[in-house]
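Let us practice reading a record.
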Amino acid sequence: MAITIMVVDDSKLARIVAGKAIDQLQPEWVRVEAANADEAVALVNGGDVDVALLDYNMPGKNGLELASELRGLRPFMPIAVITANTQDEVIAQARAINAAFVGKPVTAEALRGFLDGAALRLRGDKK
């Protein structure tokens, strides 16, 4: 069964960069993209999104607000908030909603731990 990862960022370039990193680590995963929180919620409600990577700084809802909303829809979905804003408060807020924190720039190395953990968790859930 294919794993679907959703990349949410208002920057198309940032989505491309994240997509390349994901493809290096998990080339068999299906990737879907959203440019904002509303598109992301629609994707989650409309299909099988298994993992979410959320930009922190977006117009409308930020990544933490979106992560909280997604947590309500999919309590066990692996979620990471991606940002260059490495303030302790932002990291603590991400952890408080059981979301990982990944610093920008997004690279395969930066995503490796999160994606490996998500893959293990999802394999366990699908057994």
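A brief commentary: The helical segments are 12-25, 37-46, 63-73, 88-96, 108-125.
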